[in-house]
Design goal:
Blueprint lengths: L6 H6 L7 H17 L5 H29 L20 H26 L2 H14 L1 H5 L4 H22 L5 H5 L1 H17 L1 H6 L5 H30 L14 H12 L11 H25 L1
Helix pairs in contact: 2-3, 2-7, 2-13, 3-4, 3-7, 4-5, 4-7, 5-7, 7-9, 9-11, 9-13, 11-12, 12-13
């Protein structure tokens, strides 16, 4: 066991590479509001993005703590986090760190409620419940649903509200393409971990579906991301420049072909969750770029 984790360890244990799935939807929401409205408060949006990332970091830590205590993460397991299984951190350290970050996130959220309106509190309560009780839902095959709600509609509605002081319901639709891919990050992880999750006596959607249907589910979510984007452009809900996100199709195809290999060897998708997260990052960045171009052109 390390005597004392380094500063780098304290940063990496929050899984900063995963922050794109929370920060980028908030950024897209901010840019969409700027594109479609003349009167908005962009500094509040920046505060919302920062608060979202802080809260996401705390949620990651709390999930790791619960997985370790439940036996979902254990020495020798492929994938997952090894912060606790390697002995780098003690469980109490991770729990304390998590609660500090979650508290900071809540305080930032309450400040934004005070500045903008009580409706934001209801959005925040959904996000907070999802973070605090994510493991409870995850172990009962509801983790995909929580990720879908929190890392898409909740984040984007909240960002839109702090900028406008009202609900911008169209953001529910705008969130869909990115959210479908985000759910696939978790789904590919759970498909890979079916055996270890079964040993830990938890249930995930991938376990209930089985490998074959899990592969098809991955295909469907990937296709839904691009189809929903095309439909929104066709109906004028998104600018035509958003079609540049189609440049990510080769990555999506490659990921689908990798997922197909799970039918023969489940270990072959060991890094598919990371590859899917990279697709989500590329897709979201291109969506952001398209909105920036639509604003300035």
């Amino acid at each position: 066991m390390k005597a004392k984790p380094s500063f780098k360890d304290w940063i990496l244990v929050t899984r900063p590479w995963s922050f794109s799935v929370s920060a980028l939807p908030a950024l897209v929401a901010m840019l969409y509001v700027i594109h479609t409205n003349d009167d908005y408060n962009w500094p509040f949006a920046l505060c919302a993005i920062i608060g979202t990332v802080i809260f996401h970091a705390g949620a990651n830590l709390l999930s790791d703590y619960n997985d370790f205590r439940r036996g979902v993460d254990r020495p020798g397991k492929q994938g997952g986090t090894d912060a606790l299984t390697s002995g780098c951190f003690r469980a109490k350290q991770i729990l304390t760190y998590s609660l500090i970050l979650l508290t900071l996130g809540v305080l930032m959220g309450l400040w934004l409620v005070w500045q903008t309106g009580v409706q934001l509190l209801y959005i925040g309560l959904i996000g907070t419940t999802g973070a605090l009780f994510y493991s409870f839902f995850k172990y009962r095959a509801l983790g995909d649903l929580i990720i879908f709600l929190v890392y898409g509609p909740v984040i984007m509605l909240g960002t839109g509200f702090v900028m406008l002081g009202r609900m911008e319901w169209i953001l529910l639709l705008v969130s869909l393409p990115m959210t479908f891919i985000t759910v696939n990050v978790l789904h590919s992880n759970n498909t890979r971990d079916q055996q270890s999750d079964r040993s830990a006596e938890i249930a995930t959607l991938a376990m209930k579906m089985g490998t074959r249907f899990s592969v098809w589910h991955y295909y469907v979510l990937t296709a839904a991301a691009y189809l929903s984007l095309l439909l929104m452009v066709a109906f004028g809900l998104l600018p035509a420049l958003c079609l540049i996100t189609l440049l990510t199709l080769p990555i999506a195809y490659k990921n689908c072909m990798l997922m197909k290999q799970a039918l023969r060897d489940i270990s072959s998708i060991g890094n598919l969750d990371l590859a899917t997260a990279q697709l989500q990052t590329a897709f979201s960045l291109l969506m952001s770029l398209s909105l920036i171009l639509s604003i300035v052109l």
